[in-house]
Amino acid sequence: MFKLVAFLLLLASILSGAAQTAAQGKAAKPKPVQTDGTAPKKRAAKPLDPRKKFVLDVVQTAVSIPQSDPQDRLRVLNSAAGVVLPISRKLSKQFASEGVRIEAELIAAGVTPVASLLASGYADCAAARDFVERLPAESVVAAEQSLIGAITACPKTVPTAQQKLELALEKGVVAARPLLAVIERLGAKNVWSQQQFERMISSLPSEPNTARQEAPNYAAMYARMAPEVDEDVARSTGLKLLVWLGKLQQSGERNLAVNIGTDAMKAALGEKKYNEALATDVMARQVAQSAGQAGEIDRPEEESASVLKAIDSAGTDRTEELAKMPSSLRAREAAASGFATGTSGNSKMADRYFDIAFAAADEVWASRAQSGDAPAVIEEVSEAAAHVNAVNALQRAQKLEDPTAQAVGMLAVARVVAGSGDTPVASR
Q1: Where are the domains of the chain?
Q2: Distance CA 173, CA 136 (A)
Q3: pLDDT in tens, 403-424
Q4: Alpha-carbon distance 405 to 76, whole Å?
Q5: How many CB atoms sit inside 10 A of residue 190's CB?
Q6: How many other β-carbons are positioned within 10 Å of the β-carbon of residue 174?
Q7: Contacts for 94-97 with beta carbons within 8 Å, 24 or more apart?
Q8: How far apart are CA 137 and CA 149, in angstroms?
Q9: pLDDT digits (tens, 9 = 90+) for 194-227
């Protein structure tokens, strides 16, 4: 392959040199002139409409704000690439290129990125291929979202991804979702797909509870492959999965995985052979008997504000009620009330609510180590304000205390303007 590439490069060089020599032998063509003897004027580039120019200016200003934390920088770049994509693919690609580089650095350090330009689909295939080639095999779990994005969007990454995932399994590192993404590309009947499925089930983590949240993904892989493999393989891998699940502490994830696994095993083998298989392994049978329990993935309860309540309360002053709320809920509820009153024409009351909302958002960001949804709060507040008056919302976002919060808020404003058909104007 190397020799072929070298030959092609050499051939291209020869052809280029020959063309250059031929060009030098010809007299330079005179530049066209107008009938009055003057050179033709260059056609001026068509100016952007005010709305797009506003979005472009805001995005570029937000991205120019420095972030010392690479996770913050990645979050800003991911948001900026998405907002600016419909206006300037070149600029979006530029942001994505920097973002993918940061993703790779974080993953190499064993840190899971908070966002992924690859998963979002903003990175091009050249960046995706480079990412997969540089990815350490032992980091495939931290790189799951990025890797799935690369595999899904760029088929040429699949051969390298196969090598990385295969090497990871040899090291006892199981990344079920990227592995399934490759299998979907190759086909479940593919020899490699079936081999790696068996290896995955045989390589499940030796300390099951450290991988509790991944249990439903392992079961989903079994459910996908059990109908496609030989019956003996479906039987043996099903038993191994159940035995492994039996070592997990009781949880919603465990129950969900057991339900998925037993249903898939029963469908693949049939009721009779399913029961016969369970009769050969006491532990697997005990786990299977627990099937049917409520299974769900444990997620933190999400906080949200009611816009309908805010609209119903648009004629009343909620400032005392808001003051008693935790900062994150206060920010969201005040933003909702600002939106409700602002869009109904009461700009003075809306300003009061947005004063409260942005002040609370600053509090949330200051304590974001305890509040993982701080960026979401900033976005929600800024978007609500932008729906009322984008210029004023931008000014408020720029006054947030933290530089990254400023960038996040500004991009949220730009996103609202980009999705609307109105040109932003300041209130009078």
Answers
A1: 71-186, 210-296, 307-419
A2: 11
A3: 999 999 999 999 999 988 666 6
A4: 9
A5: 14
A6: 22
A7: 95/63, 95/122, 96/122, 96/123, 96/124, 96/127, 97/123, 97/127
A8: 17
A9: 999 999 999 999 888 888 899 999 999 999 999 9
